[in-house]
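New here. Invent one.

***
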Amino acid sequence: MKHIIKILSLLVAISAFWIGLLQAAIVPRSHTWLLPIYFVVSLGCYGLLMVGLGLMQFPTCPQEAALLQQDIAEAKDFFKHKGVDVGSD
């Protein structure tokens, strides 16, 4: 619930800032109407950046990788005994 309140308060603050720019005519109207588009594009870029950083910092688990390789070897042996071609080693 707290996260929703943060998002809504941020949305209200951005809307108030945008309406303030429209009323004060500090920025030309042609540029002010593009601010929501800039905001959406910036939000998309931020999301892609966070996904990219998350992928770069993805933790590796060498113990789990070794266990997975062991499971794969056991499965290959099991299927070889059943007569199934599992490919080359």
